[in-house]
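Handout, tutorial session.
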Amino acid sequence: MEPEQLQQRLERIERQNLFLKRAGAGALVLVWIAVALSVLASLMRDDRVEARQFTLADAEGRPRAILAPGDDDGFYLIFYDALQRERAVFGVTGDRRPVLGVMATDEKARLGFEVDQHDAPQLGLFDQQHQLRAALKVTSEGQPKLSLLDGNRKRRVVVRLLPNGQPELVFFDEAERPVRRIVAAGKSDTE
């Protein structure tokens, strides 16, 4: 074989080798894309992204909001301040009640809102020891009711409207027994 023919043959083999390398690299990229699309397809169903938890982070990478299931099979959106303290929660409990909680800087609830199992809305105000001290509720019959509780979570005063529209004020002792009941009747001296 002549040196010139050998040179041409060597150049042809090098071109084929380069072509095979490029084809192999292209095939590898196509396989990688197929795998990535497969993973994305498994996460996306019907134009949605599915995950067990979503975390929103600030510019420093600190979590500021987390959407995740709770221990009670409910689902909650929890908001954090810049110091990573839990400050607000919105969710639906495992027994399907909507709830909203607002926390102080010690991460204890100060205000809570829920719709109870009878579809009655209730707003609760808590002290610094996380004790319920006041509850405002609209009963399932539609009457407003305000309960004031002592530090032992015992009802001490209830103000409500009766079904006939008359206001009622009830005082309770430490055992939550009514000791005084006042129902407004007739015209008041302010009319």
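The second record follows below. Compare its token runs with those of the first.
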Amino acid sequence: MTNQMDDAEFDKIIENHQKWLDNKIEGVRADFTGQDLSYVKFKDLNLRRAIFDRANLESSLFENCDLTEANFIQANLTTATFSKSNCTEVAFIQANLVELFCKDTIFTDAIFNLVDATGSTFYDSKFEKTSFTFSIFSNASFEDSVFWQTDFSGSDVSETSFTRGNISQLILTNAITQHTHSMKIITETE
């Protein structure tokens, strides 16, 4: 892992990314691959299609951000926070999401594959056609969250709470569900 990115370098990447999104010739897609962005606050930013692969984002904050199609492949998001953000088509693959906290965040067509999200909290968030396959969500909480066609196939959701969750067509094929708490789970076969 590299040293913590300085503010000037960070600001330049964000500025160039905005230009790239606006199709300006001098624009460059934000690529934070392998960067140390621990404790960084991403607030009110358009980070569509940004790359955070193998980045250290421990205890970082994403508040009111558009992260559509961003990649977090093998990223460390331990104790990070997502609040009021759009995570449509975001890829969390082999990422460390231990004790991640999400509140009022939208995950549509997002991919959580081979992630460790032990002890994470997803509060009052929305999940539509999201894939949580072959991952660890033990002791996690999805309190007050809304689910539609969400797939937890092959994942460990033991000791996980879906309290007051609106769960529609939740797929739990080969999932570990021991002591999972929920008001109502509707599976694909019902």
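Points raised in discussion: Confidence is low (pLDDT under 50) at residues 183-190.
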